[in-house]
Design goal:
- Two copies of one chain form a homodimer.
- Helix content of chain A is 13%, strand content 33%.
- Chain A has three helices and nine strands.
Chain lengths: 144, 144
């Protein structure tokens, strides 16, 4: 008879909910990284509700601190993030989201939010917008 | 006569100190990424002093929230991070550090702190320690 498949003893399993350590506001920073190129796209915040929705739908949902509500990334701009894998760090207080980014991650129209590099104490722009943000959000809008 | 070299008009320069937006505690999250492989190693916190020291010395210095003091990464373990480039995000409230990591970034002895992946609501270890943490910190120690 075939033996049932089990994880090797070295692989310990824990429930995500038991290990998460959000801050005093119930939030946890989440880094979004393009899964195949390794590019770090952005950092935003999640809470237990947005984490659950993201895992269930496979589309990344953050918590917007400025708007005080769930932020379904791409809901305005169409620039969605498909979740490939969610990882947690050693302390349980930071998430790494491997994603497939549709279009651009940054509200400025750039692929990544980290488009400024420090050189001699000055910030230099190292990436230009790939798309006009007015086309993503409408004139005068921001984020989404 | 040769004209003086200037940046093209499209390159806007700003002083880092003028654009940084730390949180109410004066802290800003900093993501450390291995500069050549793209691996996200860890997330920790910096303040203006640790940012300044990092830029001057070229060795990454964080602010330890648990210990309430500067944390010169590797000071105990020898697992230093050499700064290759510091980047800032669009909102001015998150740093991305491109680093060259000596040895391992994680206090568990793993290369990256993000060694657990969520599968079906459970965390699975996807990376084993590369080195015994007792060898880095001494028995009973943590972090550094």
């Amino acid at each position: 008879m075939p033996t049932p498949q089990t994880d090797p003893p070295s692989v310990r399993q824990q429930a995500l909910a038991d290990v998460l350590l959000p801050d005093g506001d119930g939030l946890i920073p989440a880094i979004a990284q393009q899964h195949d190129t390794g590019e770090v796209l952005m950092m935003a915040w999640m809470n237990r509700v947005s984490i659950g929705e993201t895992l269930v739908t496979g589309r990344v949902c953050y918590w917007s601190r400025s708007r005080g509500r769930l932020w379904r990334k791409g809901e305005t701009s169409g620039q969605f993030q498909r979740l490939v894998e969610m990882r947690l760090d050693c302390d349980g207080d930071t998430l790494l989201l491997l994603v497939d980014q549709v279009g651009v991650a940054c509200h400025t129209g750039r692929r990544s939010c980290f488009y400024r590099a420090v050189q001699g104490g000055q910030l230099h722009e190292i990436a230009a917008p790939a798309v006009d943000p007015d086309l993503l959000y409408g004139v005068g809008h921001s984020h989404g």
